[in-house]
Amino acid sequence: MIGTESKQQEIIKAYQFRHACKAFDTNKKISDEDFHFILETGRLSPSSFGFEPWKFVVIQNEALREKLKPVSGGAKGQLPTASHFVVILARREEGLRPDSVHVNKMWKDIHHMPEEVVQDWYDFYKSFVETELEDNDRLIFEWSIRQTYIALGNMMTAAAQIGIDSCPIEGFDKKQVTAILQNEGIINGDDFGVACMVAFGYRQKDPKRPQTRQHLDEIVEWR
Ligand SMILES: Cc1cc2nc3c(=O)[nH]c(=O)nc-3n(C[C@H](O)[C@H](O)[C@H](O)COP(=O)(O)O)c2cc1C
């Protein structure tokens, strides 16, 4: 069995290995098994109320990547070179209303909650949406987007642990990317909106600079 210390070192090494990779080696493809593993860590990520408000669209079609490039400045090096390129969609407000089809499906079909438990959660969730999210479409969607970033982080860390590079991407024009995905029939109706992107692959070269971070003392306060 691996000792605690070496397990910790192994995980920290993966965090140190991960960097925002700008360009990938186009000769190296991530295996189906490894990519499935990365997606699985996204699927198993936690979400508020267990609603899993995400969809991972894996864009392998070169022509579609080309279409996204002019409106995705932050992904110009990654779009043409990534082994796998993912646009993470977040469920929009309509599907997160307390009486929506999705919320009901999650409670009943996925989490198998008994009817009386669903009723309790319904009341609690309704009050959460009304008070914390001000029953506001934009706030509900932003809350949904926030949760996709947990899956994003988990997928990148999991990738790093098996020696796969990645880059999180927010540098794109949301309206234009949404329009492209609607045109392609990837986003239909108002179910989902674009949250963020993430590219995976194997680095072309090592990063120019070593990882730079603030000291732990600057970001942690003990009381
Ligand atoms: C939410 C988010 C969005 C980001 N968007 C981009 C992007 O559009 N393009 C890019 O090359 N890097 C992007 N980055 C990478 C950051 O610039 C990078 O993580 C940061 O500078 C720290 O560097 P490191 O990840 O290499 O340690 C993004 C990072 C995060 C977390």
Automatic annotation (TrEMBL):
One of its GO terms (cellular component) is cytosol. Residues 17-202 form the Nitroreductase domain. The keyword ATP-binding does not apply. The keyword Transport does not apply. One of its GO terms (biological process) is 2,4,6-trinitrotoluene catabolic process. One of its GO terms (molecular function) is oxidoreductase activity, acting on other nitrogenous compounds as donors, with NAD or NADP as acceptor. Its cofactor is FMN. It holds the Pfam family Nitroreductase. Keywords: Flavoprotein, FMN, NAD, NADP, Oxidoreductase. PANTHER family: NADPH NITROREDUCTASE (PTHR23026), OXYGEN-INSENSITIVE NAD(P)H NITROREDUCTASE (PTHR23026:SF125). Belongs to the nitroreductase family. This is NAD(P)H-dependent oxidoreductase. It comes from Paenibacillus cremeus.
